[in-house]
Amino acid sequence: MGSICTEGKIEINGSICPDKKRNNVQNFVERINPTVGEKILLVGNVSNYGKYLNKLGVEVTILENENDIYKSAALQNCNCNVIKGNLEYIPFKKGYFDKIIFLNYFNSFQDEEKVLKELCRVLKYNGNIIIQENNPKSLYSKLIAISKKVSGCKCKFYNLDEIMNMFQASGFDGICKNIDKYSFIYVGRKIKETMD
After folding, report:
1. Helix, strand, or coil here: 130?
2. What are phi and psi of 96, to 5 degrees?
3. What pLDDT is stored for residue 109 in this prediction?
4. What domains can you pick out in the chain, each with its CATH number?
């Protein structure tokens, strides 16, 4: 297994967490390739990954949606900053994070344009964004989208081309790849500074 974030190049060799039953943490850490002192923002279904990154000397911040009713990440991720909020208003200064990682959560925005601006604002130049997301064609994704719409939430699962175009237009160079029939991964590097 190789890392997906290395100096100078981006590659995808598979899922961040390909096997939900065993060795997730080791696989996650190997793929993310964290370095001591790095600042990483985790968003979505982060499980207990934050505490393991923290043990490696990474400053981990977990952004939990203020409207979600899931079990709090604070219980599973000791010594990590857990912030309730939303992606339209990320409470950090420009260029604060080295990496932003989404795990099955790049699908529920009220204002897509504002989210992209915020991600660009808080990610350092040459920083990485990693998105592992459900395939929009899968039955699972369709059921999630229906349940969110019924509950009054906005939900859109983006396909690979949409993700690539969205981030390319926002100043990223990246690659996107289907992992299996259920999910895909996007890895991008910020190559342009924003004017904000």
Report:
1. strand
2. -75, -40
3. 78
4. 5-190 (3.40.50.150)
DSSP secondary structure letter of residue 86: B
For residue 72, the 8-state DSSP code is P
Banded model confidence at residue 18, pLDDT cuts 50, 70, 90: very low
- What average pLDDT does the segment 126-142 reach? 86
Whose structure tokens read 């190789």?
2
CB 3 within 8 A of CB 33: yes
Q: How many Cβ atoms are within 10 Å of 18's Cβ, its own excluded?
A: 17
Assign residue 79 a region (left: φ > 0; alpha: ψ between -120 and 50; beta: otherwise): left
Q: Which residue has the higher pLDDT, 121 or 78?
A: 121
How many residues are recorded in the chain? 196
Instruction: Return all residues near 124 (Cβ < 8 A) that are at least 6 apart.
Output: 95, 96, 97, 98, 190
Residues in contact with 21: Cβ distance below 8 Å, sequence separation at least 6, in sequence order: none
Higher pLDDT, 33 or 151: 33
Residue 123 clears pLDDT 90, i.e. is over it: yes
Chain center to CA of 100: 5
Mean pLDDT of 144-153: 77
Phi, psi dihedral angles at 180 (to 5 degrees): -155, -165
